[in-house]
Amino acid sequence: MLKRRIIPCLDIKNGRTVKGVNFINLVDAGDPVELAKAYVKQGADELVFLDITATIENRKALAGLVERIAAEINIPFTVGGGIDTVNDVSVLIKAGADKVTVNSSAVRRPELISEIAGQFGSQCVVVAIDTKLVGDEWIVFVDGGRTPTLLKTVSWALNAEELGAGEILLTSMNNDGTKSGFSLDITAEVSRNVNIPVIASGGAGSMEHFSMVFFNTECSAALAASIFHFGEINIRELKKYLKHEGIAIR
């Protein structure tokens, strides 16, 4: 197992960082450029930027803001929101993104994954999966968590890998923003079934939650937002704690 990564996530709406619970009730969490700079100083391994309303507002991710953030950071930078074509990816790579994340557009047109991988390499394509436990099935949702699909989460993750995805960003909508811990069952199931890295997302509320997801699943990274944005957990302190717990961390 490669060393595990800690990844803060900037959810962007109207040019500001926001955070909600279960994908709703968004509150302002600060200036994305300043937060990005702070996370680099704290030792974040990567940074994810998600323009969370780009798809439902039928527009592209904010390339100008991506450029401003990229100019201030020196860690891998993943950008998502409203990506429908290879040309959209070109714009974001030129603005400074290292990787892109696709979600709704990949569900609606899976060949987009292969098209991006073909042009930029699989390492550039992160397929984001927003999943929710419906009855006893984990189901894929699109449109910022608003629309359920008929896709089952594990089979979609496997399909995404076959199509050329280099990584899966798996967010449990049930846990998102609740600070009750990552969803260990679906994270374990997806990370066990695919051969590409899985980023666990949704539910981090304490340092113990990170050690639990690393001990109980094969995910290669854990992502969080509000606990970092509001200073509840410092990334440098978190890494110290995880090393002390015996987890190989970057």
What is the domain tally? 1
The strands making up the biggest β-sheet line up spatially as 1-4-5-6-7-10-11-12
Beta strand %: 25-35%
CATH superfamily caption: Aldolase class I
CATH class: Alpha Beta
Structural class: alpha/beta
> In whole angstroms, how far apart are the ends?
12 Å
CATH topology: TIM Barrel
Major beta-sheet overview: 8 strands, parallel, barrel
The percent of residues in helical segments reads 25-40%
* Poorly predicted parts: none
Please count the helical segments.
Answer: 10
Mean pLDDT comes to 92
General form: globular
Cα radius of gyration in angstroms = 16 Å
Q: What pattern of helices and strands is seen along the backbone?
A: EEEHEHEHEHHEEEHEHEHEHH
CATH architecture: Alpha-Beta Barrel
Count of β-strands: 12
Secondary structure: elements and pairs:
Layout: E1 5-13, E2 16-21, E3 24-30, H1 32-42, E4 47-51, H2 63-70, E5 77-80, H3 86-95, E6 99-102, H4 104-108, H5 111-120, E7 125-134, E8 137-142, E9 147-152, H6 153-163, E10 167-172, H7 184-193, E11 198-201, H8 207-216, E12 221-224, H9 226-229, H10 235-244
Parallel strand pairs: 1-4, 1-12, 4-5, 5-6, 6-7, 7-10, 10-11, 11-12
Antiparallel strand pairs: 1-2, 2-3, 7-8, 8-9
Helix pairs in contact: 2-3, 6-7
Walk me through the structure:
The chain has helices at residues 32-42, 63-70, 86-95, 104-108, 111-120, 153-163, 184-193, 207-216, 226-229, 235-244; strands at 5-13, 16-21, 24-30, 47-51, 77-80, 99-102, 125-134, 137-142, 147-152, 167-172, 198-201, 221-224. Strands 1-4-5-6-7-10-11-12 form an eight-stranded parallel β-barrel, surrounded by six helices. The chain has 250 residues and is of the alpha/beta class. It has one domain (5-244): TIM Barrel (Alpha-Beta Barrel). The protein is globular. The mean pLDDT is 92. It has ten helices and twelve strands. The longest helix has 11 residues, at 32-42. The termini are close together.
